[in-house]
Write a structure and sequence with these properties.
The protein contains 2 helices and 8 strands, in the order βαββββαβββ. With about 130 residues, it is an alpha/beta fold. The protein has helices at about 15-25, 90-100; strands at about 10, 30-35, 45-55, 55-65, 80-85, 105-110, 115-120, 125-130. It starts with 7 loop residues before the first strand and ends with a strand.
Length: about 130
């Protein structure tokens, strides 16, 4: 097989400190690496923070002048969210409340899974998924 897996998901943010703190302090990601790329011809360098959780990487991108469109509040075409698999929905919801994170949808319990959604500091949706196996 030529294609192995999804390597990373990129998020452009104009609030890097708040976003890194949310993903690390609240969701348990670790900072794997930081980088700064000087983009020749464009004059504006980009700052990158690679956050890792369970073998999945989220790459936060920040640069001066970035225009971050508001996250969609309703169904729409295009990218929708990232999803995190969790061990226990009730424990996750209780924990997130202690961190001041609101559940924006759910939890919904189906025969094979439980699902809820939260938002990061940029307004991007994050699905929480517990599989019943």
């Amino acid at each position: 097989m030529i294609f192995k897996r999804i390597d990373h998901v990129e998020i452009v943010t104009d609030r890097p400190g708040e976003t890194v703190a949310f993903y690390t302090d609240v969701l348990g990601f670790t900072v794997r690496e930081r980088d700064r790329i000087e983009r020749s011809g464009l004059g504006v360098p980009i700052d990158l923070v690679y956050l890792e959780l369970g073998g999945t990487t989220v790459e936060l991108i920040t640069y001066d002048g970035a225009q971050v469109d508001p996250a969609p509040q309703t169904e729409h075409l295009g990218y929708r969210l990232i999803a995190l698999e969790i061990e226990d929905m009730d424990r996750a919801v209780d924990y997130l409340k202690t961190k001041g994170v609101d559940i924006t949808w759910g939890p919904r319990v189906a025969p094979t899974y439980a699902r809820a959604e939260i938002r990061d500091p940029n307004g991007y949706s994050i699905e929480l998924r517990q599989w019943f196996r």
